[in-house]
Amino acid sequence: MTHFDAADAAVEAALAAGATYADARVMHRRFESMSARNGDVEDLTQRESAGIGVRALVGESWGFFAVPDLDDAVARQAGVRAAEIAAASATVPNRRSGREEALIPSDPEVGSWASECLIDPLSVPLSDKGDLLTSATAEMRKQGADIATGSYDIWDTRKWFVSSEGHRIDQHVRECGVAISSTVIGDGETQVRSYPSRRGQFGTRGWELVEETDVAAHAARIADEARALTRAPQCPAGETTVIIGGEQMALQIHESVGHAIELDRILGWEAAYAGTSWLDLSQLGSLKYGSELMNIVIDPTYPGALGSFGWDDEGTRAHKRDAVRNGIWKGVLAGRESAAVAGLDYAGSVRADGWSRLPMVRMTNVGLEPGPHTLEEMIAATDDGIYMDMNRSWSIDDRRLNFQFGCEVAYEIKNGKLGRMLKNPTYTGIGPRFWASMDMLSSEIVAWGTPNCGKGQPGQTGHTGHPAAPARFTNVRVGVRG
């Protein structure tokens, strides 16, 4: 039987068992990862899995059941079990009692989508991939790194989605990325420099992304910079003007905006894993989130970014929407259920990390639109400040409000010019106050990928994208220790 046949069978069985709505998601995923250390391949992982996950709605209550088998009888039994679980859940009063609709309306979609992929990552010989990592890590060792590491990850995911409303969608999503890192042991401390970021750069693209990243060309530089950091002075403490590089801005957006605008957190449904949100739905459309330069969009149609897709895991077509416009909070990340509870008319941000997991509200691509400046202009306009980039540590409270971030490297800015290197830079702030202090923003947008966003219980790992550019903030507290 085909993948669509299995999904059809599961949905039919769920409806026959009493569900008022049902959907089924068949997934087949291949994963490959390799890591190298000090010039040698250290690990190779290759995995493959396939299965079907079924959601069923009875009244206002959900049931979910998943099996690693696409046989017709097994798929039908999964549909029955999902409906039975929903019926059992319906015996308990729930948070939406009295609402007319459990889900906002959705037009049935029929179609296919595939991410752009010029070079199939899984077709590249393992020997070539190993050579890439071993040569880069060997070069970092040659340049003085005490520990030199490199890695890549590849995901090849196919999905077939069917709903009782008439959805019939298939998608092929290929993602990959690469990272290298140099660690140098100094006098009582270690310093690290990474490229293209601590997590690496990832996208919904083929191996061409890894080739464009060209880690070999940066290996010597980051080893030299890690060594230089052990001799650099500490980042001073106090309040100053800070220019934050694009890679660090991506994490700033992820933590202080992306998670905060997840509607399940705002509604209080998600609290156990990294908390809720400081945002109040009554202020949607009026709350000042930041300065007028702050324009953040939710855009799963962004070409090549890690949070891109054709339809989410509820069959809602990908679309672009404002999260913050001219500093005013305008939109949220929502699913059909949470939108119905909140009285909103849009969804499109529900995904699961595998066939055996229940879809939930997740970030897609949440990022800045370009500003009017360049990094050079921001530096030239700064008499006294600090430029810092490349995340090293992060901490944010369980309302996504009060944060502290550490970066790998910083540089003094004096009289409009970059000065000496500084080590152990940190900065801290409170979300809306911090964003309100943004007075310059670069046009040099890069869509950074975050492949390790955790959420939910049981835990799920999400892939998110964050278009970001360097930005300048005034009166920022820096140099906080501990």
The overall number of domains is: 2
Bulk shape: globular
Number of helices: 10
- Helical coverage, percent range: 10-25%
Give the total of beta strands: 23
Radius of gyration, rounded? 24 Å
Mean pLDDT: 96
Main attributes of the structure:
482 residues, alpha+beta, PmbA/TldD fold, 2 domains, eight-stranded mixed sheet, five-stranded mixed beta barrel, 23 strands, 22% helix
Topology:
Blueprint: H1 3-16, E1 21-37, E2 40-58, E3 61-67, H2 72-89, E4 110-114, H3 126-142, E5 147-163, E6 168-185, E7 190-195, E8 201-203, H4 208-213, H5 219-231, E9 238-244, H6 246-258, H7 263-266, E10 296-298, E11 321-325, E12 328-329, H8 336-342, E13 350-351, E14 360-361, E15 366-368, H9 375-380, E16 384-396, E17 402-414, E18 417-422, E19 426-430, H10 431-436, E20 438-441, E21 446-455, E22 460-468, E23 471-478
Parallel strand pairs: 4-6, 9-16
Antiparallel strand pairs: 1-2, 1-5, 2-3, 5-6, 6-7, 6-8, 9-23, 10-11, 10-15, 11-12, 13-14, 16-17, 17-18, 17-19, 19-23, 20-23, 21-22
Structure, explained:
Helix content is 22%, strand content 38%. It has 482 residues and is of the alpha+beta class. The protein folds into two domains: 3-231, PmbA/TldD fold, CATH 3.30.2290.10; 238-478, no CATH class. The strands form five sheets. Strands 1, 2, 3, 4, 5, 6, 7 and 8 form an eight-stranded mixed beta sheet that branches. Strand 16 (384-396) and strand 17 form a beta hairpin. Helix 1 packs parallel to helix 2 and helix 3 (126-142) packs parallel to helix 5 (219-231). The longest helix is centred in the first third of the chain and has 18 residues, at 72-89.
